Amino acid sequence: MLRILALLALLAPLVAGATDAATSAAKIVKQGNGKGAAPCMACHGVDGGGMEATGYPRLAGLDAAYLQRQLDDFANGTRANSVMQPNASALSEDERAALAKYYSAMPLPARFAKPATAPDAKGERLATRGDWSRELPGCVQCHAPGGVGVGASFPPLAGQPAAYIEAQLRAWQQGTRHNDPLALMQHVAKQLTPQEIQAVAGWFAAQPLPATGSTP
């Protein structure tokens, strides 16, 4: 009995710390941190689903390690963005980690379970098969069938606003974003025409996602 009580005493600070981190993340999402970081929901929505009209990405259900790396890269200047850099820089390392876990655990909004719209033939072809005459692999070879994402290095594309996907492809293409594994995305993006970028982005944005749970 004494051993159990001693173990519980050791675990209590860890449990309390996890609870405090979750509470802190929820507060930052709704109110900011009072140190320069704005409320996350102002751009990424109350449900973490992003904003299609403005191209702000979905965060709900994304891999925690991927989210934390992006926040860290914004904070240290590895990834450039005029909105995210000052906000991420105003967050402590613990706050960035807490936010990554918070959004990773957030269920996908039901609206992402919508049926896929009529696919764009060019976008579908490039997304699923690529064009090997240009050494261009299909996007799903890294981002998984349907674009649901794989782990910390290959985020989901399905359910992201088309404008966001387009903006990232242009950033890879122009070299203003370069935090990809082995420069894979820079190679891929440089092979695409503006019309192809638009077609691929539109195809992935139209793909449905499960209504509940986290991104696989």
Automatic annotation (TrEMBL):
Gene3D superfamilies: Cytochrome c-like domain. Pfam families: Cytochrom_C, Cytochrome_CBB3. Keywords: Heme, Iron, Metal-binding, Signal. It comes from the Bacteria. Residues 20-107, 118-208 form the Cytochrome c domain. InterPro entries: Cyt_c-like_dom, Cyt_c-like_dom_sf, Cytochrome_c4-like, Cytochrome_c_Oxidase_Subunit. This is Cytochrome c. It comes from Rhodanobacter humi. The lineage of its organism: Bacteria, Pseudomonadati, Pseudomonadota, Gammaproteobacteria, Lysobacterales.
